[in-house]
Design brief:
The chain has 428 residues and is α/β, with parallel strands linked by helices. The protein has 12 helices and 20 strands. Strands 1, 2, 5, 6, 7, 8, 19 and 20 form an 8-stranded mixed β-sheet that branches. A hairpin with a 4-residue loop joins β3 and β4. The two termini are 39 Å apart. The structure holds flavin-adenine dinucleotide (FAD). Flavin-adenine dinucleotide binds next to α1, β2, α2, β6 and α12.
């Protein structure tokens, strides 16, 4: 007798094991929308939160920028409850230490880790097959498919942006991007150029000199000072409603651009920069980077000074290593996947290539977006930790409705042998 194994069907597949993906997944389980055993998580790294941990470690940041209430637990007191002492926070806004925040992330994941179907790999395609989504996971040489009723896409940020001058360097050259590479330990006396002027650059520029690394900060623009990297007004209903009243995705994008503050630093970090400059521990060079070349085991940087009025003086300096802290590309994360989905499933894209989701953050029935991908609906805080909550609040009921409608349709189909499915809301 032949036995046919029916492929396992999940209720939900979450793509991306970062703080935002795990927030949505754990909330779906906690709210009883899905059983942990009917959920899968796909992420290419060995450990969840790997990207966040690497990037925060690279920047050597001791405390978060956002308050302790911005964790990934729906209970806004979760981080405070976990703390063992006040020294794990810093003013203003009672911001938690990175160590405490990491423990909080782990706590949240541990609550579901044993039951969730964890797959290591990158989602390379998502296709519709009847009522199901079929998710293709590629990892190394292998390929795997997952069949599911719902998908939540939380793939984080677009790729790191490398300055043009540094983008064609030989792979052996000591050129790093703080969001792409695991930074090496530098030795006392090493000469390091940091290129960029945001929070990552500022953290590195203030922590490396403490280990007697000689640091030049190549910064084209002046530092701007803001406590948060996006206007908090959009977290609440006042600006949030204003944002959602805008119909045109172009205008929404414009408002997001005006409300986000990439390249800004909080006041305490700005003070530390000023202190380090005064002490002679840090040199800030107002310069436009033009070119880079390998020089022995190091790198030669060339640029033009932008501080002096009139003539722009050329500048050339050699370093043992160069670290780009230049943020992310402007397009959507998982761009190829998004473009392919839009093309073959006819889904709405804005002119900037970002998806245009509905209010419940579904882009198609059963396909939900979180983080940067949901920015045109969630607004300026979408990429932040608080953006996870704003997305979760809409996605969790959205998935519940979708699974409920799906079950109803299956029951109706089972009753009607001809396969007729009554339209939603009609009498059977
Ligand atoms: C150093 C640093 C400090 C920050 N501090 C703060 C702060 O204080 N407050 C705040 O609000 N925000 C902060 N942020 C911003 C934001 O909270 C983080 O970027 C956060 O990591 C976003 O979580 P995420 O889940 O969207 O992305 P990520 O942590 O990047 O996780 C996304 C995951 O999805 C995976 N993935 C991508 N594509 C695929 C695919 N096709 N298939 C499978 N998996 C895929 C990625 O590999 C990654 O593991 C900070 C960011 C950084 C880098």
């Amino acid at each position: 007798m032949q036995h046919h194994t029916v492929p396992r069907r999940h209720d939900v597949v979450v793509v991306g094991g970062g703080p935002i993906g795990i927030h949505v997944l754990s909330r779906l389980v906690e709210d009883g929308v899905v059983d942990a055993g009917a959920a899968a998580l796909v992420d290419p790294h060995d450990e969840v939160f790997a990207q966040w941990n690497t990037r925060a470690g690279n920047c050597r940041m001791p405390f978060l920028r956002s308050p302790a209430s911005h964790g990934i637990d729906p209970d806004f007191r979760a981080i405070r409850r976990l703390a063992s002492g006040e020294d794990q926070f810093t003013p203003p806004y009672h911001r938690p230490s990175v160590q405490l925040f990491r423990a909080h992330l782990e706590n949240r994941w541990t609550s579901i880790a044993d039951s969730v179907d964890r797959r290591r790999g990158t989602v390379s395609a998502i296709d519709r097959d009847g009522d199901d989504w079929v998710v293709t996971v590629s990892g190394g040489d292998s390929r795997d498919t997952l069949r599911t009723a719902a998908v939540v896409l939380a793939p984080g940020q677009p790729p790191p942006r490398m300055p043009v001058a540094l983008s064609d360097m030989p792979v052996t050259a000591p050129v790093y991007h703080t969001h792409r590479d695991l930074l090496p330990e530098f030795a006392p006396g090493d000469r390091v150029a940091i290129v960029g002027g945001g929070i990552a650059a500022a953290h590195l520029a203030t922590t490396l000199p403490e280990r007697h690394v000689i640091v030049d900060l190549w910064n084209r623009d002046r530092f701007t000072t803001w406590q948060f990297d996006s206007s908090p007004c959009f977290v609440g209903p006042r600006c949030g409603t204003l944002f959602r009243e805008i119909a045109d995705p172009w205008h929404r994008r414009d408002l997001i651009a005006r409300s986000r503050r990439p390249g800004s630093v909080p006041a305490d970090l700005n003070d530390a920069l000023v202190r380090h400059r005064r002490n002679g521990q840090l040199r800030v060079i107002s310069v436009e980077l033009d070119a880079a070349a390998a020089a022995g085991r190091g790198v030669l940087l060339r640029g033009r000074s932008v501080a002096a009025r009139g003539a722009r003086r050329p500048l050339a300096r050699e370093y043992d290593a160069v670290i780009a802290c230049t943020g992310f590309e402007p397009g959507p994360p998982a761009a190829e996947l998004i473009a392919a989905l839009a093309a073959h499933s006819g889904l709405a894209l804005a002119p900037d290539g970002y998806p245009v989701p509905r209010h419940d953050l579904s882009w198609a029935p059963g396909l939900f977006l979180a983080g940067a991908l949901a920015e045109l609906e969630v607004g300026p805080p979408a990429r932040n930790l608080v953006g996870a909550h704003l997305a979760g609040r809409r996605i969790v009921p959205g998935v519940a409705r979708h699974l409920g409608a799906e079950r109803d349709a299956r029951v109706t189909r089972a009753r009607r042998p001809d396969g007729y499915v009554a339209p939603p809301g009609s009498q059977p």
